[in-house]
Design goal:
With 217 residues, the chain is α/β, with parallel strands linked by helices. The chain has 6 helices and 7 strands; from the N terminus they run ααββββαββαααβ.
């Protein structure tokens, strides 16, 4: 667990950065497909979060960020065992700390398809359970976060009217130990970039974002 003041600071820093980047990268369609498509948004968010936040002091913690993307290597590399576009791993230092991972499916707001989201959530749940399965919807104003439970309540290809969180709100749930799979957590020790790369290859997800909150002495 983390105290309330530091929790709020971490929520604001991470959630604010990801929402800002999503707004910057959101792209309209021009004569068909978007200029910047969903996989590129996810990959660029990961890299820019690393560039912007790695080494930043947040309250009583230092935030270490590692972004990893796996290159496409033919049709088989695009096959996603889990349905996840992003592996988000979070580690909190300290006696009450944790190592947890979430799987995320990411979509533009205009590309929501109920059957696809249900299938992706079902596959992700087989690995990380409901507590580790989330959907990010990229909108003009940032990112809306839906749990697999909310996806199951969809009526048609719309998420309108369903309860959602912000990325900041999701971060709060992770820090409060309500979200994320400990079984898939990446330990604080070891080569984090190598370890997250191994996880990405294991589940054939393209993007990984690894966050470590290290307590200042």
């Amino acid at each position: 667990m983390i105290d309330r003041e530091n929790r709020k600071l971490v929520m604001d820093v991470l959630g604010g950065a990801i929402d800002e980047l999503a707004r910057d990268l959101y792209s309209d369609t021009i004569d068909g497909p978007s200029i910047v498509q969903e996989p590129e948004i996810t990959s660029r968010i990961c890299q820019r979060v690393e560039d912007r936040l790695d080494g930043q002091r947040v309250g009583d913690y230092i935030l270490r960020v590692t972004a990893q993307s796996m290159p496409d290597r033919g049709p088989r590399s695009l096959e996603k065992i889990t349905g996840a576009d992003l592996l988000l791993s979070v580690s909190l230092d300290g006696p009450e700390g944790f190592d947890k991972t979430l799987f995320v499916q990411a979509k533009y707001d205009r590309n929501v398809n109920r059957e696809e989201l249900l299938e992706s959530c079902h596959r992700m749940e087989q690995f990380v359970g409901k507590e580790g399965t989330y959907v990010w919807i990229y909108e003009r104003d940032g990112v809306k976060v839906f749990s697999s439970h909310q996806v199951q309540r969809m009526r048609g290809n719309t998420l309108e009217g369903l309860y959602h969180r912000s990325v900041a709100g999701l971060t709060g749930r992770i820090l409060d130990c309500y979200a994320g799979s400990r079984a898939w957590g990446i330990p604080m020790s070891g080569n984090r970039r190598q370890l997250i790369g191994e996880r990405l290859r294991q589940v054939r997800a393209k993007n990984g974002l690894d966050l470590q909150l290290k307590k200042l002495s």
